[in-house]
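Quick question, first post here. What does this chain look like in 3D?
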Amino acid sequence: SETGLKLTVGENSPKETATILSYIGRLYRSYGKHEFALKAFQKALELSRKISDDNGAAGALTLIGRTYLEQKQYAKAMETSQQALSAYQMIGNQQQQVNLYVQIGALHFQQDQWTEAIRAYEQALKIARDINDQSGVALTQTLLGNVYSRQAQVT
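> Answer (accepted):
Ran it through. Tokens below.
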């Protein structure tokens, strides 16, 4: 049912409502209900933009991109992921930039675009090192290893 999507701003601030919609979208996505997830994320994006919450809007775009990635809708996933990355760059959120470069790397990896995947993962690695994000460094090094391993298997 779409009950979660009928939330109104009444009791909650628009920012709280956008956050709730993002959680509802995540639940829908976890159950494979991508269409409902995208509706929730789109509504969260609209609310975030309406109140000039750049971080919230970037978060919603990230979730939309991930959902499209799961659906193998690569062009839409890339478009929304790039929008989210640009937003995070503008507000200076480096941790989320790492996450977006990882997401973009995964997009390329799933399409066997090794050079682009490596480029994205290397960007994530550089930023992770710059902000001393040890788990980000470990993750991106592992992902780079996966690309090189996979590349060797298919060539």
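Helices lie at 14-30, 34-50, 54-70, 74-91, 94-110, 114-130, 134-154.
The chain is about 80% helix and 0% strand.
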